[in-house]
Request: fold
Amino acid sequence: MAAAASHRAAPEHTHPDDVPVLTALAALADPVRLTLVRELADSEEWSRACGSFDVPVGKAALSHHFAVLRAAGLVEQRDQGPKRVNRLRRPEFDARFPGLLDLVLRRDVGE
Reply:
């Protein structure tokens, strides 16, 4: 019974094709989420666990930020042993919103 209690539910993902542009823009407008997306863009797919990001928020807030990114079609997550690892859905997101990630990932934009 204890093993079943420790099992986490798989996160729900929204495909970028189902995301309105304002949802995508709102997700990318937050500085913490922008940092997460930028760090994922600079990382190999599935190489970053949720706790490996350098952001000034606690675990609950970090979970919320990842939920927003999943709902905006930007991030996909999967459980890998005890860790939840992440991937930026760049090809899918670029197909839906061509050029948007290129623009927001530039370090001179909005800073």
Summary: Strands lie at 48-49, 75-80, 83-88. The radius of gyration is 14 Å.
